[in-house]
User: What shape does this take?
Amino acid sequence: TSLVDQKMHEVAVKSKSADTTKIAVLAALNIADELFLSQKKLDQLNEALGHMETEIESLEVHLFADENTYTDADKSPL
Assistant: This one.
């Protein structure tokens, strides 16, 4: 069954209403709410991903700087 049919069935069971228009509107509101919450969660995950990417870039800069320090130290005479 489709998502709309599934949501309409859920609303019909919970509301015990036979008014199909009311059921359809409530199902549409539930679907819109789920979409809104999913979009909000996606935005939060994308923001967290951005912070992680920035942290990785920073760590890479430090790692390569440390590697160059050790490489230069190996080349210097004792």
About this structure: The radius of gyration is 28 Å.
